[in-house]
Amino acid sequence: MVKGTPGFIAGRREEIINACEKLYQTMSFKEITLKEIGNAVPFSRPTIYNYFRTKEEIFLALYKREYDLWNEDLTSILEENETLSEDSLAGKIADSLARRGQLLKLLAMNNYDMEENSRPEFLTSFKSSYGKSLRLMRNLLEKFCPKMTGQELQNFIYIFFPFMFGIYPYTSVTEKQRAAMKEAEVDYMYQTVYELSYNCLMRLLKGQ
Questions:
Q1: Do the Cβ atoms of 160 and 94 come closer than 8 Å?
Q2: Does residue 182 lie in a domain region?
Q3: Residue 177: how many CA atoms within 13 Å on its side-chain side?
Q4: Are 103 and 139 in contact (CB under 8 A)?
Q5: Among 12-26, 56-70, 175-189, the least confident range
Q6: What's the CA gap between 28 and 55, in Å, rounded?
Q7: Which long-range CB contacts under 8 A does 139-147 form with residues at least 24 apart?
Q8: What is the pLDDT of residue 208?
Q9: Are residues 36 and 4 part of one domain?
Q10: Which domain holds residue 164?
Q11: Interatomic CA distance for residues 9 and 99, integer angstroms
């Protein structure tokens, strides 16, 4: 049982998540260990186990936070606009994703292992944030694309959300990868997160 007020517990968890996030800027998921995270927080490493049992739980909490931040962006689009054309809606959603690079990076990871090594309460909390993203996207479509049928709405969501898993690898390419593509003579046109997302969104909104 973790001791302390809800605010204190939330603060400690936030410190741990922040430490993990900072490491994730320069290290891969495989390279980051609880020891590395422990070295980056202002309290003893064993204290981490009072809040998270595995590094996967920490990453899942970071993942949840990224969905929460995206949900704020989607909510703003929904509440701050009375009407939007298909082009404007696609642009605003694409722009919201362009600001969520870390969410896209996490989406490109092996989510199965992350979820499998997390306790049910952490997984449920994460799924709650993910589920809110699904609902908000549906709300956006219902408000700004009222002619879409229920089947079209469902098709949009079940195409676009899986599509998001591939955005990061296609838009964040290292020099090593570029060199390999050139050496392999692969003719590939690199796009930004905005461009890739916008093009997919417009095709889905127009039913192509």
A1: no
A2: yes
A3: 8
A4: no
A5: 175-189
A6: 12
A7: 139/78, 140/74, 140/77, 140/78, 140/89, 140/93, 143/78, 144/81, 144/83, 144/84, 144/89, 145/86, 145/89, 145/205
A8: 61
A9: yes
A10: 66-110+132-205
A11: 29
> Which tens digit of pLDDT belongs to each residue from 97-112?
999 999 999 999 988 8
Find the angle CA(93)-CA(95)-CA(100) to the nearest 5 degrees. Answer: 95
Helical axes 86-98 vs 55-79, angle rounded to 10°: 150
DSSP conformation letters of the chain: ---S-HHHHHHHHHHHHHHHHHHHTTS-TTT--HHHHHHTSSS-HHHHTTT-SSHHHHHHHHHHHHHHHHHHHHHHHHHS-S---HHHHHHHHHHHHHT-HHHHHHHTS-HHHHHHTS-HHHHHHHHHHHHHHHHHHHHHHHHH-TT--HHHHHHHHHHHHHHHTTHHHHH---HHHHHHHHHTT-------HHHHHHHHHHHHHTT-
Instruction: Count up the domains in the chain and report the number.
Output: 2
Dist. CA 15–CA 48, nearest whole Å: 10
Both tokens assigned to 137: 């996207």
Residue 121 lies in a domain: no
**Has residue 4 got a pLDDT over 80?**
no
Q: CA 74, 90, 164, 180 torsion: positive or negative?
A: negative
Work out the pLDDT band at 6, boundaries 50, 70, 90: confident
**Torsion sign over Cα 40, 45, 48, 49:** positive
